[in-house]
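Figure 6 in text form: structure in, sequence out.
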């Protein structure tokens, strides 16, 4: 079977078999959030632990409970604690089984207590990503073989037969990392042990790492486990060159420090090396946001060296190529030095079905706080509103967390105390859940009005399908990095920190024109929006227009492209008769957005239909993204077709006038 063309989704066989073997970050790493039930449950995160091997690291979010680690080398009967010196602790009700798609849990309170919420991080053994190694000490300097297939960037070692501190090697920990170590279970700065370095004053290689005679790594008869993390080793992608994990360092500044790791991270571990500070873990499921604190958007931190519950972090934020840290001593600050492990955001696979990345949902409002809108998919962005009333249409995303904007207004980003809401435990943000988003009881956001019909569109970020990028304007023409892994065919850009119109780019119109989402106006020529430059598969260009790039203003951009059989961005020509639009689908379109390009008909609304409310041979409700009007239910403008959709005869000029040209975005 030929490999799917995935723009960086498959990897060559690291064992030298010659044939290309598909491999993706989502196959080897997962952050999975869940609620405990004090019984048993199965976590299905898609990671094969039973045949491939790996590590499961679990931490309570809502309670002060230990960080507990189970791995396939030691088996399900023993736990370790990253915040303690304990060796192997017998525990038969923690992780009770490693499966081909995840793991099972017993009723151990540290991993599955009632009324408690948890995060789990799963690392699968995979060359150039992660490995687990065990050995018995002999008190003689020696090497330990590993199967990482590359030089380790970080090694975490724990003695199992008795109490002992963790030892951590990191490639960027001072100029001589082979002479020093960090301690995972404490806040200690880098330790220089003098004449007895645990790494025997020897750098690791792609096949072995060295240990000396220190008892924490090599006492006679002692037993040990090591967790090895790769660094910029490639091994992923169609050419086998894409990096998915980076172990680096940075030095803080007096202001904001920007760290470029070469990709957008989904998981980050950081530790100060020249002073005492907690280890910190952030991930994009619990909340690794773009900030800023000044408007009430925070990231969420768990600490490996303590049992403390999850806490809001005000200075650690994500970017499309790495992360930013503020002027705070445990994460930044002038002259302070830090090491980190960063893991690339997934998925890397190009989707093959629309249902895996898009869900239209109708529901009835309850006016109850912390209400989950279950979309059935991991949700990275939403469009949502009340259906029957004159209200604004909400748009938001995981990066902006509880921040939202309205598609029909130029307003800046808003945060309402009970709008997009947190989970019932009050942690994270509105997107800190595996299958939807949380809403509160604020009427201002139009998302949960009591006994009122509601509508939501849920989108998952995926290569070639859809991406979300946040950036800060410079006032001069510039490029902005994105992770769509394809040339964007549709871009919708909105200022977050000031009021300005929504700007829309469409490839079928070209890079010299723009439209306004919150307006019915036609596409208009304007070089200041996109600087007359077509986007590429890695960057898009903005000029100096206030809607796309004012100095110091923060922005969000939604990017979309065509995925065969999944989505289609394109155009059609109106005839006044039925127009069949072939999108290459097999079961019809579930979402259709249409906007006239040449607005000689004075009817340039942004129309949207969906299968949740009905795209059929009868009347089909639609909403207008640029207006606050209630949905229209008594028209039959669009029908479904197996390969896409049909625009019916008699539809208005904004949809099907003879000689008119129309932009559309359709999702299967």
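Output sequence:
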């Amino acid at each position: 079977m030929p490999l799917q063309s995935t723009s960086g989704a498959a990897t060559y066989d690291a064992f030298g078999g010659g044939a290309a073997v598909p491999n993706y970050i989502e196959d080897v790493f997962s952050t999975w959030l869940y609620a405990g039930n004090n019984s048993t449950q199965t976590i299905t995160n898609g990671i094969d632990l039973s045949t491939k091997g790996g590590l499961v690291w679990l931490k309570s979010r809502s309670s002060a409970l230990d960080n507990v680690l189970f791995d396939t080398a030691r088996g399900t009967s023993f736990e370790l604690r990253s915040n303690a010196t304990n060796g192997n602790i017998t525990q038969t009700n923690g992780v009770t089984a490693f499966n081909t798609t995840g793991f099972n849990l017993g009723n151990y309170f540290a991993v599955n207590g009632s009324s408690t919420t948890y995060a789990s991080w799963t690392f699968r053994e995979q060359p150039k990503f992660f490995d687990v190694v065990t050995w018995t000490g002999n008190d003689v300097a020696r090497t330990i073989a590993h199967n990482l297939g590359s030089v380790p960037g970080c090694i975490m070692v724990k003695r199992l037969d008795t109490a002992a501190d963790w030892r951590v090697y990191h490639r960027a920990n001072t100029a001589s990392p082979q002479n020093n170590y960090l301690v995972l279970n404490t806040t200690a700065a880098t330790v220089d042990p003098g004449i007895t370095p645990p790494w025997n004053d020897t750098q690791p290689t792609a096949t072995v790492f060295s240990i000396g005679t220190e008892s924490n790594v090599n006492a006679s008869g002692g037993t040990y486990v090591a967790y090895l993390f790769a660094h910029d080793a490639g091994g992923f992608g169609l050419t086998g060159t894409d990096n998915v994990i980076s172990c680096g360092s940075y030095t803080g500044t007096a202001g904001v420090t920007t760290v470029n790791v070469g990709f957008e991270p989904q998981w980050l571990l950081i530790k100060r090396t020249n002073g005492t500070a907690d280890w910190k873990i952030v991930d994009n499921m619990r909340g690794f946001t773009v900030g800023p604190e000044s408007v009430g958007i925070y990231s969420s931190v768990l600490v490996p060296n303590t049992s403390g519950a999850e806490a809001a972090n005000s200075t650690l934020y994500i970017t499309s190529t790495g992360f930013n840290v503020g002027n705070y001593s445990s994460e930044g600050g002038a002259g302070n030095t830090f090491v980190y492990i960063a893991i690339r955001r997934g998925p890397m696979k190009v989707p093959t079905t629309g249902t895996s990345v898009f869900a239209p949902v109708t529901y009835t409002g309850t006016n109850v706080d912390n209400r989950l809108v279950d979309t059935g998919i991991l949700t990275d962005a939403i469009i949502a509103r009340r259906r029957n009333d004159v209200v604004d249409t909400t748009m938001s995303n995981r990066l902006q967390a509880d921040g939202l904007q309205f598609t029909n207004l130029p307003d800046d980003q808003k945060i309402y105390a009970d709008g997009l809401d947190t989970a019932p435990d009050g942690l994270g943000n509105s997107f800190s859940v595996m299958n939807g988003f949380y809403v509160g009881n604020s009427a201002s956001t139009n998302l949960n009005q009591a006994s009122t019909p509601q509508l939501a569109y849920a989108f998952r970020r995926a290569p070639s399908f859809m991406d979300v990028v946040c950036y800060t304007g410079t006032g001069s023409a510039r490029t902005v990095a994105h992770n769509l892994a394809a040339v964007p065919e549709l871009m919708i850009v909105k200022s977050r920190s000031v009021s300005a119109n929504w700007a829309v780019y469409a490839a079928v119109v070209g890079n010299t024109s723009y439209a306004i989402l919150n307006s019915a106006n036609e596409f208009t020529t304007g070089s200041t929006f996109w600087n007359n430059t077509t986007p590429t598969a890695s960057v898009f260009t903005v000029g100096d227009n206030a809607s796309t790039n004012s100095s110091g203003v923060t922005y969000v951009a939604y990017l979309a492209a065509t995925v065969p059989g999944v989505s289609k961005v394109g155009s059609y020509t109106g005839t006044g008769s039925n127009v069949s639009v072939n999108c290459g689908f097999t079961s019809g379109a579930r979402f259709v957005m249409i906007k006239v390009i040449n607005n000689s008909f004075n009817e340039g609304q942004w129309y949207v239909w969906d299968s949740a409310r009905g795209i059929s041979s009868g009347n089909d409700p639609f909403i207008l993204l640029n207006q606050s009007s209630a949905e229209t239910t008594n028209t039959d403008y669009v029908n479904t077709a197996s390969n896409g959709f049909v625009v019916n005869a008699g539809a208005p000029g904004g949809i099907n006038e003879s000689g008119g040209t129309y932009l559309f975005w359709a999702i299967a």
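Caption detail: Residues 567-667 form one domain.
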